[in-house]
Amino acid sequence: MTREGLFRPAGAAARGPWLLARGLLRYRCVNLAGVPPADRAGALQAQLAAWQPFPDSVFLVDLLGDQAQVFALERGALELDERIASELWPESLLHEPASDGLHLVECLEGCEGQAWLNGVLLASRWWAQKPALDEWVAFGRQSRMGVSRRDAEVLPELERLAWFKPLRPVLRADQLGYAALGNERLLMGVTVLSLLAFTTWAARDAWDSRQESIAARQALEAVKQDAAPLLAARDKALAAADQSAVLIKQLTAPFPLEVIDHLAKLLPKGITVKELDLGPQSLRVGLELPTDLSRAKVVNDLESGGWFTQVSEVKDAGVRSWATFEMKLSAARPPGRSSNDSGLKRGAAELPVNPELPKPVAPQQAGKS
């Protein structure tokens, strides 16, 4: 011990941490469970400002989750400079946390009553000597442990604990704002880096998308150039197909001259064609008939050729002086003509079977005559 209440651990470096005897300190546990993490430093500062166990207090804080284990020290008690004050460790934090309940622990000077719950020191009180029973009972009632009267009225044995290396640093209360500011700066730095990384990724993705779009357009233009001859050939083929369809339709449609010629061959003499309406497979014809010719004979004559079918007279022809007939065409072309229709057989029948040629005349006879 170099100064009253100030100890250096055995084997520590010349500028290592200093141990504060428990008798120099006052203790309070501050519950910050209902305070948002970003506001806990300010809330703790407000509570410490209201708790002033010394005229000029220095607070050493051990943050443990949503609990703050706070030790108060008189600033001028040891006449410490700032370097030493930043390396102080409360004696109570250099022992391993005890089990839940009340404990009486031997200190470097005197002894300490401790109330532990879930690894948190809820209450602590120091005595220069082992406390009397009534002092222990008062501590048990004030510890917020909810122990029974019987347990609190039993003075426990004095415990000697082994030294323990702290897992967390102890901060001074005036350093909490800087720590929070450092955390905020760290959070801001992480946020900026995240935004920068996201922006870089988005820019890279946009650049890749643009390059892919340009490549796709170039590929499309190349395909169009390669396909231009094929497209031109396709257009020509479609145009030729349209023309072919028109020609086929014309070839498969009946020819008006053939229809008129067929009518002239089938109808009796003396009939005059007044109107003619030719469709792809139908014919409507108006005929001026002689008075002595029946309409039934006209129908039979029209159907006799085999080209006109379903011949019927139109009854709603109005007051016209001629009769109108409708019929269907069985094919686009009339039936093939026979030799009788062509006149070849008739001409051959009129010639003699074995015609006798005139006999040649002798020259002498020709001269005599």
Q: Could you list the spans in which at least 5 consecutive residues all have pLDDT below 50? A: 10-14, 178-182, 338-351, 365-369
* Series of H and E elements: EEEHEEHEEEEHHEHHEEHEEHHH
Q: Globular, elongated, flat, extended or rod-shaped: what is the shape?
A: rod-shaped
Spatial arrangement of strands, main beta sheet: 3-5-4-10
Task: Tell me the radius of gyration.
Answer: 64 Å
Number of helices: 10
The average pLDDT value, as a whole number, equals 79
For the secondary structure, the number of strands is 14
The proportion of strand residues reads 15-25%
Oligomer: single chain
**Fraction in helix:** 25-40%
Largest sheet, if any? 4 strands, antiparallel
The assigned structural class equals alpha+beta
Report the end-to-end length measured between terminal Cα atoms.
191 Å
Organism: Roseateles violae
Protein name: General secretion pathway protein L
Region (Disordered): 330-369
